[in-house]
Write the structure tokens for this entry.
Amino acid sequence: MSTPTRRRLSETPFLVAATGGVPSRRPVWFMRQAGRSLPEYREVRAGVGMLASCFDPELVCEITLQPVRRHRVDAAILFSDIVVPLKAAGIDLDIVAGVGPVVANPVRDLADVRALPRLRREEVGAIVDGVRLLLDALGETPLIGFAGAPFTLASYLVEGGPSRNHERTKAMMLGEPEAWHELLGVLTDITVEFLRAQLSAGVDAVQLFDSWAGALSLAQYREFVLPYSERVFAEIADAGVPRIHFGVGTGELLGAMAEAGADVVGVDWRVPLTAAVRRVGPGKALQGNLDPAVLFAGTDVIRHEVRRIAHEADEAITLGATGHIFNLGHGVLPDTDPGVLTATVELVHSLPAPL
């Protein structure tokens, strides 16, 4: 992979914490910080579909910058969607308001898998252009690129959209393992190519979202998912940037997810950071893990919970974690008061940095 001339941001708190150093302050950013909770986001998205927004470099740049301007978070995350590389490759899908990604022709057997297109770098040129615009605009703020993990992409393709029980996905996984493994191989190739495009454009870190992995048992995860996430991280290791791994409801999978090769493991709100470090093991940074719903509970509750998580993070570092990045345990909820998010960033920054 060609290596761009990267911005020299090695002293920024986010990158220091992600790489095992001692940051000047406790870094904080929020998943889904660029999006529905901001009135300026709703204004620029008016009349523009989600996928159209993701393929518009100027909009990608503007929306990614909005929470950095407003909240002064320590990292920006590229405005995109996990199904963008599938759409770019030529798969017929759309993001339906109030529903999520909907696939016109779900993948149900080996023939469907073998008919899937592959992703070519030029098909995500608009995303690359958006990254380049951002690097000029962000100044000293690191930019996180991201992709959906192969399992989560597979779930959308097999189910045809979001699913509560993932029954068709599990049926293919367990009942048609040949089709499953071939599907995951194709999606791993797509994910790697999408991340390489972002890395070649100059992103400073990447996060792999395995949003639906929490639906699996540990045995299922190890056999049918882990090898593919492991390959994603291995094939982008030469970029030399921090790699983050995150899933929702994955408390029982944290140890296996850590084995996939990321430098930072995201933890949702269900597992205390002191328990997470024991499952993840020493030698990796942790990210998380304020419950997004806490942001609706009032100032006193928020202050208590933020301080609790910071205390747990400090204890996790004494137990072997190499650092902590403050975040939510999942994404910002649409009705979150932006002022509350700004105040939360200020509170996190006011706390002593972990040693």
